Automatic annotation (TrEMBL):
Coiled coil: none
Pathway where it operates: Amino-acid biosynthesis; L-lysine biosynthesis via DAP pathway; DL-2,6-diaminopimelate from LL-2,6-diaminopimelate: step 1/1
Active site per the UniProt annotation: C75 (proton donor), C213 (proton acceptor)
Binding site residues for substrate: N13, Q66, G76, N77, N185, E203, R204, G214, T215
Biological-process GO terms, alphabetical: lysine biosynthetic process via diaminopimelate
Family: Belongs to the diaminopimelate epimerase family.
Name this protein carries in UniProt: Diaminopimelate epimerase
Gene name linked to the record: dapF
UniProt site positions, description: Could be important to modulate the pK values of the two catalytic cysteine residues: H154, E203
Entry-linked Pfam families: DAP_epimerase
Function per UniProt: Catalyzes the stereoinversion of LL-2,6-diaminopimelate (L,L-DAP) to meso-diaminopimelate (meso-DAP), a precursor of L-lysine.
Complexes and interactors: Homodimer.
Species whose genome carries this gene: Natrinema versiforme JCM 10478
Amino acid sequence: MTVPFQKYHGTGNDFLIIHADEHVPDRGALAERECDRTDGVGADGVLFLALEDKFDPPRVVMTLFQPDGATAPMCGNGARCAAEWAMARTGTDSVMIDTQAGTLRAERDGDEVVIEMTDLTFDPDEVPVDADAPVLNEEIEGLEVSMVNTGVPHAVSFVDDVDDVDLEEVAPPVRYADAFPNGTNVCVASPDGNGGFRQRTYERGVEGETDSCGTGAVAIAVAARRLGLTDADPVDVHPPGGHLRISFNERGRPTLAGPVEHEFDGEVAVKSPVEP
């Protein structure tokens, strides 16, 4: 048996989208198999989306399974891809996205999709990180990081040049550090000379570097503002896959903007949990 999918990416952060009505007995196993870039379709995650178009604006319920087969409560670029998918099906320019980290509003703005992010926090209990106060520029496993949760936890390190960092070497010890009960994504950022930052991110669940990370871009922007490294609004963040823009609305919540592309459609095999 097979189920149809659509392949989308936001600045290189790519996802298979499968309608939640499709019968997939083991979603985690499908994600592990099909996210593999050698033996599967290849992706940073699989989005299972349920569209509820009776609402105004329409709502889409998003569940993300990562390449390790586990779910993640939030994904910025994934949410933007989900929004584009839903807007294309409803003929609207605005949707609400229900994630495990909260409900987001998304809108189309020209060639970009913009989402208002969930509440963010530096509170160590909510990141979570084993600390008595917010972690700002503290050394953990050899890397000086600031900790913020932008839907998922991020350890942000500001460096002179992201290209000089061996991310596959320095990130895993931080990602698995005892200080983080749920693990963490690891971002390195360097100033671009115009108030923005270049970005590289090692993502938990992917267990490697991705071409882009939306929650990571937001983490970089809010950590930079907290540390006084920029007062720009918007803050431009440049991951390897493109350009993201983080603004701060009248409620003080960050918004994440960038392009989304529909790559292609296809079908993937579905196996029952007892099949090899």
